[in-house]
Design a protein that fits this description.
The complex is a heterodimer of chains A (364) and B (287).
Chain A: E1 10-18, E2 24-33, E3 38-42, H1 49-57, E4 64-69, E5 72-73, E6 84-87, H2 99-109, H3 114-127, H4 143-156, E7 161-165, H5 173-190, E8 193-198, H6 201-207, E9 210-215, E10 218-223, H7 225-230, H8 235-240, E11 245-254, E12 259-263, E13 267-273, E14 283-288, E15 293-295, E16 302-312, E17 315-322, E18 327-333, E19 346-351, E20 357-361
Parallel strand pairs in A: 3-8, 3-9, 6-7, 7-8, 13-20
Antiparallel strand pairs in A: 1-2, 1-4, 4-5, 9-10, 11-12, 11-14, 12-13, 14-20, 15-19, 16-17, 16-19, 17-18
Helix pairs in contact in A: 2-3, 2-4, 3-4
Chain B: H1 19-40, H2 53-60, H3 62-93, H4 98-113, H5 116-127, H6 132-139, H7 153-177, H8 181-189, H9 194-222, H10 225-232, H11 239-249, H12 253-280
The chains are: A alpha+beta (364), B mainly alpha (287).
The complex binds adenosine-5'-triphosphate and magnesium ion.
Adenosine-5'-triphosphate is lined by residues 19, 21, 23, 25, 43, 45-51, 199 of chain A.
Amino acid sequence: MVEAQGGRSLVVDAITHRYPSGALAVENINLDIKGGEIIALLGPSGCGKTTLLRIIAGFIAQSQGRIIIGDDIVDALPPNKRAVGIVFQNYALFPHLSISENVSYGLAARGIDKVTRQREAQRLLELVQLPAMAERLPRQLSGGQQQRVALARALAIKPSILLLDEPFAALDKNLRLDMQIEVKRLQRVSGITTLIVTHDQEEALSMADRVAVLSHGKLEQFGSPSDVYDRPQTLFVNTFVGSTNRMPGVVVAADRAEAKVRLDAGAEIIARPAGGALSEGGRVTVCIRPEHLQFVADETGFAGVVGMSLPLGATVVHEVTTADGSGVKISQARIGETRALENGAAVRLAPLAPSLANAFPATL
Amino acid sequence: MGTAPASRDVTSYGMGLAAPLALFFLVFFVAPLLQLLWLSLHNDTAALHWGLGQYIHFLTDPFSLGVLGSTLLLGAEVTAVCLVLGFPIAWLYQRVGPRLQTIIILIVLLPLLTSVVVRTFAWIVILGRQGIINATLQSLGIIDTPLKLLYTQFGVVIALAQVQMPLMTLPLITALGRIDPNLDDASCSLGAGSWRTFFRIVLPLSLPGVIAGCTLTYAAAITAFITQSLVGGGQMLFMPMYLYQQASTLQNWPFASAISIIFLLAVLAVVSVFTTLGRLSRGFGGE
Ligand SMILES: Nc1ncnc2c1ncn2[C@@H]1O[C@H](COP(=O)(O)OP(=O)(O)OP(=O)(O)O)[C@@H](O)[C@H]1O
Ligand SMILES: [Mg+2]
């Protein structure tokens, strides 16, 4: 049995899983997670996040690859021997047991005596700020409270790894923020290596030390939130995380660090070859985030005509139609009185810096 | 949204709408029951003299009490067999693919699609002296003389269990289907083994189905006139046949009525024990 303790490392080594029905759910996933890290598994619906989580927990035996917790290869261990805590999306509290019994369930399974169990349950309920709810049944709690109980229940067994499957999906926005802060606080206190599955990119970027982006069962990128956001390695990551303008073009000249791209919109710009080396004459997609575009007064950049302007509180988003007829969004911080842009005004746009325009080989 | 009357709370409709049904029950259920009670409170077959003689007779007669006891015991045995065999079937049903589920449901429902008489005769063929079981065992050389299976308590229990099995399995399938499969996984990830998960999570949560199944099976088993009489034969007497003999053969209607009432009360008592157990088991979770 894996010794339960905070902050063990987790290695997902070349994990591939094919369901008996033939669906290839995850393919050759490699993650090297240090003890005590918070990792977010981010990806659209059906990309294999839950499958990967269930493989780590031991509910599914992978087709290929290894799971290593600390120094132990745990592939042969059943879920009840892995010391992995898991919080399910629908909480999965035992409806017929009181809150206190739910929290101490794992301790009872370990043969710990009743007095110690109750004391421990009370301590954990205080930790998640629900000390007065011990005798209630799960259905007598609100969604957010049930979530906290599920968390306390998972923490009670002092897991070496904590897995959270879309833990905040069912909560409303304010409560979600509270719980995100709460989970992060608890994680810091306990130092438990934590894996959060989410399809909410803000959640992933704000909570995690590192983010693993999945698409169609493949790992697209595994890096810090700023890596993933500012230095995306694939077109998918660039478009899935944050919003971006996709501008087609042709490579005019390229070396390792920079590529000169002629945009179909009618300008030559310098971009960063984000997905590896680019070949001259090849078609590319250049991604520039709305907040990384600026209006320029000189002849650099590309021309366009202002369409709709959307004041979104702290920022204003303008829709600009370029020469090739495609729409480009540019967002500007609202500093004092922003320059009013009339509908139909002719403007020129350019990226703030070459490193903020990412060029990817165009996929046909 | 519908029109105003359509969105009215169902409880706000006049009770008058239920009158036809109420009348039906009054005429065909309550009235005969009262007549039965009235009849049972007479000491003579002509129903002329009031008295508790019939009840006193039954409750002081070892033979009658024996019949009641063996009937209630028969019900308990059949229920136990159905529960022990039905639970794994229902459990399996929730864990196999859709194609196997269809097959299981078909097998479970099959007994309901054939007449009780046919099924019972099939059991006579299987259990008889020259029946399938004895013939097989003899040809394999396991036994020399045929086993007595027919006209035994064992035979009646087995036949009744098969006949009543759907009444147990269907509520169990429903109850197990309502349990969130994540609860299994949650229990397991918290370190519980399969047995702990079964006894602490699956069983308590399936109790409504267990109780519904037991109640139905029990009530059906003790009142199953045809199977009891055919498989039990002349040697084994249970309440339905006893009642039939008193009423039809001996024309002792007041005594037959008293037997009915006592039988009814005994069944009600057992059923309320089941329901009370169910209610108590809410606290099943507390160790
Ligand atoms: N039990 C199963 N049998 C066969 N295929 C499955 C099974 N579970 C999931 N899949 C398939 O595997 C793929 C990955 O599913 P998974 O549940 O891991 O996705 P997910 O990333 O968790 O999605 P979501 O965000 O919607 O929860 C999907 O294409 C899905 O259809
Ligand atoms: Mg999922």
